[in-house]
Amino acid sequence: MTLGAWISRKKAPPIPDEIRGPDGETVVTDEQVRLGKKAFQANGLMNHGSILGNGSYFGVDLTADALESKAAHMREYYARQHGADAFESLEAADRAAVEHRVEDELGARLSEKRTRESERAGARERADALEGSIARYSAAEVYAHRRIRDEYVDRYYGGSPERGIPEGYVDSAEQAERIADFACWTAWMAHTNRPDSDHSYTNDWPYVPAAGNRPTGQVVVWSTIGVVLLIAGGGIGVWAYHSFDVAEPTTELVDVPGPDSVSVTPAQYAAARYVPVAGALFVAQALVGALLAHYYVERTGFYGIGDALGIDVVSLVPFSVGRTWHVNLGILWITTLWLAGGLFLPGLFTDGDPPWQAEGATALLGALVAITVGAFAGVWLGTRGAFGSPGTDGDDGDLWWWLGSEGLEYLEVGRVWKVGLLAGFVTWTGLVLRGVRRMDEPPTGLGHFVTYSGGSIALMFAASMLYTPDTNIAVTEFWRWWVVHMWVEGVFEFFVTAVTSAALVSMNLIEKPTAEKAILFEVFAIMGAGIVGVSHHYWWVGLPDVWVPIGTTFSTLEFVPLVFVLYRSLGEYRSLKARGEEFPYTLPLLFILGSSVWNFVGGGVLGFFINLPLINYYEHGTYLTVAHAHTATFGAFGLLALGLGTYILRVVTPESAWDPTWFRGAFWLTNVGLVVMTLASLLPIGFLQLQTAYRDGYAAARSLEFYERDRVQTLLWARTLGDTPMILGALAFTVASVRHLVAARRRRVANG
């Protein structure tokens, strides 16, 4: 992957110094494109719509929108040359001639270069000539580019309420024009062939037939290979699981120590304070998620409440801000519970805490709360222009980048806040390591695995420091997915395996040596496929072709180790059934089992389905991705986090005060909510989008007209049926956390 970073940077799509019309007039410069990228990020447009298919699905994908509009305006231009007012008014023969001319201009030619290097022969010279080049537009392209600028000024500066865009969404008409320039450049690289290639920088994505963009041959071939690999890999995986000595939870009744017999350390009490804080973040995330879901059906308000109170809800909390909060709240509450688990578990295997361990855990929690508040306030202030207005000539400041929002999905918060979060991760790793060192175990011991997995989260997060506002968007996407994917399908899986194994050992379900063996087996399988599997995010963003075969192969194999996890979860379930209700850790184990099942469904089944190149070509950036994201992120990692929180409180709460009712309710409410949300809304909408993309083009599947269809509106309303139990489940968990933390505090006071 490090070698891939060098190759990707070297072969990233160029930004021509200038794009000129046929008369030599400059249409757009590289500086205007770069200013447009900054304006796109500073205004949070990646959380309103998307670019190159990555981002939010509420608004249009700017790449597809610009390319579709470009083709349409070019057709209009040539139609007028034929004496017609509109393309649709042409005779059939003339219409076919115009279609062919536009497709020929956009779909099958290298842009003309006017540099000394371009006159040299050879592939290397032609590739080098891309830097410092002058690209040429036809007269029709010049006309289209200017029309798109006008449309973006009307939409993002003038306002478009039906799209959920209030008036003055961006600070000036000039800023909107720069965003259009950036969008048009991504459209340019989507239809301009890579040197010595018969397809564009984005592998001819998005699907815009009018521009000549269709799936390439390698997309079809590697999709076929992916299916073959799945069948072969699945069979080999099952054979390996049964051939090697992989630890299984015992199904025999064993003596499990009750929570009252466990000596709780001050650091473990401090870790327990993280649980209700995470619960509050979970409630906030669920509420914001419901607001965002409703924005899809009522883009100018919220159940009429804003009108009744005289509040413009859309202007106060634009979709882009709400989605930024929603995404980051999800990461934060899950991470908070994982941090708590990492601080809590070593104390179960030692006699006491290192000096100042409890104080360190408490200080870390306070710092994380302060950073979260600052980061979320910075995002809101940044999108309101409080930290400058990039995209405007003469505004060279990057304060928005440092204190506001970087504007990149999942990694939105300003750089100052990210540095603080990174420092928090490093501090947490140090605290856990201090506790683990008291366990008297080798570097391959259970506690060390927990430390390694947690430290890896910080290590991968550091990659988000490797780009700046001026970095090419393709290279920026390389590093963004380096963090996000390697978290979700790499080190998060590592952490899940390590922490689950540690919890099972502490429950006396498996022996410590066999748990360590299982971690070695599963982690090498998971990370061996998951890390390089990040490549499937690189297919359509302008990165080299080499990522298509690599991404297909490893993304397919990611499914195989999840079979191992499912097998283990079934073993844990048999163990649970053998103990009956007398087993004191039934509920925490139930959450862990649910996590394993959803990991298989969301990360495995849905993940494999949408990551076949041919399907992903049409599906990329649709509700099928939303279904995968929700089932994999909340189902796999969220439920594990809730299980860890429940386990922590089960241990620190006296037996007499333990009441499983609220936690059990949280488990079933969140699971029912996720099932209903997925089956009644997300998947049906996703399949309709897939059908629309294949039939009418990608832009149509992401258009306002698609979301306003009666059937789609009904399915969007059905999302409420899943959101409601999810919110109630979050509330139930939070209430239970506060009640049991109070009981634990009384126990601690009573014990002196």
TrEMBL record:
This protein's record includes keyword Membrane: yes
GO CC, alphabetical = membrane
User: What does the UniProt keyword field contain?
Assistant: Membrane, Transmembrane, Transmembrane helix
Q: Which InterPro entries match?
A: Cyt_c_oxase-like_su1_dom (IPR023616), Cyt_c_oxase-like_su1_sf (IPR036927), Cyt_C_Oxase_1 (IPR000883), NorB_cytochrome_c-like (IPR054309)
* Domain Cytochrome oxidase subunit I profile intervals: 478-752
Tell me the PROSITE patterns matching this sequence. COX1
Q: Which residues cross the membrane?
A: 219-241, 274-295, 327-349, 361-381, 445-467, 487-507, 519-540, 546-567, 587-612, 632-653, 665-688, 724-742
- Which terms does the record give in the GO molecular function aspect? cytochrome-c oxidase activity; heme binding
What processes in GO biological process is this protein linked to? aerobic respiration
Xref: Gene3D superfamilies: Cytochrome c oxidase-like, subunit I domain
This chain belongs to which protein, by name? Cytochrome B
